[in-house]
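Run log, item B.
One chain of 181 residues. Sequence copied directly from the ordering sheet:
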Amino acid sequence: MTFNRSFIIAGLAAMLAIPAVAAERQTLTFRGGAPIEPKALNDFLFPEAQCENVTYQCLSVRPSIDRSVGVEVRFPTASAELTPAARAQLEPIGKVLAARNGKLNPGEIVIEGHTDARGSAELNRKLSEKRAQAVVEHLVSAHKVAPASLQAVGRGKEQLREGSRPDSEVNRRVELVRKAN
């Protein structure tokens, strides 16, 4: 029996380096314009993919809790239109998800839109929903991601990343969540 030691070590390191945000979700965040590396994204969201084409026993399993990827997709104020920078930022995500076509369950990937605390709760919920839908539409049209595997949800200002700074731009974000079983 042969084990890929680098995979096991990388998997353990990844588990230890990714803090649990809530009891039921682990989050990997790309901030400050850091490039999203498709391999890191794929390994985090789909660790079981490491075992799909191997001839030896593999110990990787599908995550038992939700996993999310926080992406700083920026929108113009009060707009749900994707900027060229946002489209570029979604490129690696689109490639990773497109490579999983046929392997994802309906609604398995949830695109969550979030806003800062400015404005009414209803306005922010609608805006965040439109932004999440814009990301879904982009992933489907530009990357041919199976639409049934994606679900857009607007969270508004319910889940601020920085509650001590409710108007901060870091609260305006899109998160991609892979639902657990």
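Observations after the first pass:
- The chain has one domain: 5-178.
- The helical segments are 5-17, 38-45, 84-99, 121-143.
Flagged for discussion on Thursday.
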